Amino acid sequence: MILHWIRFLLGTFCLGFGVFFIVSSVVGNFKFRFALNRMHAAALGDTLGLLGVVVGITLFHGLDATSLKLLLIVALVWITSPVSSHLIMLMELSNGTAAAEVEEERYEDATDEQGLERSSVAVRRRAFHDEHAHHGKGGKPSKEEPKS
Amino acid sequence: MDPLKELTPIVVTIALDILAVAALITLVRTFIGPRKSDRIVGVNMIGTQAICLIVCLVVRLHENWLVDIAIIYAMFSFLAVTVLTKMDIGVYQQWRVDQKKGREREVRSGRKPIVEPDLPKRRKSK
Question: Do B37 and A96 touch (CB under 8 A)?
């Protein structure tokens, strides 16, 4: 009976831990502004949230073939979640103007234009610059712009 | 009184309720996400929360085969995110190839080539 109480209390603690992390990932998804920041909150729920819920349910269920399958789910999600985060990051970097704003602040002091030219960062910054040069609010067009 | 038999369904039901509300709120975020990548992040989160819901139902309903469904759900969630992002990355790469080809055609036809503007200067405002 004492062992059952210990299992129940430990399982409740682990389940609450996992649910807390999932709820905080949802809150973080609303707090952050850019998708690159939101991925951070999503990864929180993917790793610790799922681990807490699965360990809690394993303690409730007892050791079995089913609990091994439950741990297999954790292994699967822990392998696939960084890959999907990486793909989302590639997608955001390949066509994002929000990412271009972030990169613009990061690379504003960069002097190695040769290196920037080769990366896709330069292409996106140029696209962002063009968009804002055409739709600028009363600003003069920059002198470097070619006259057609 | 055996806590594993009598108190476990109550605890798991509370966890299921909280997870369901979290999934609904994430669905709202997915709807109002301004960009495509925000929506894909939301879909990824809903997939994880659905896996947690199915795992909780294993103990609540005493059905062990639901674990297999959770494994398959994890695989399909990863497949969906991969396909959605790869489609978008492929479209962007095609656009870049087309732009490069257009620039080469411009040069070959003898017209003035497109002069790329310099990198933007440091922004004062914002």
Answer: yes
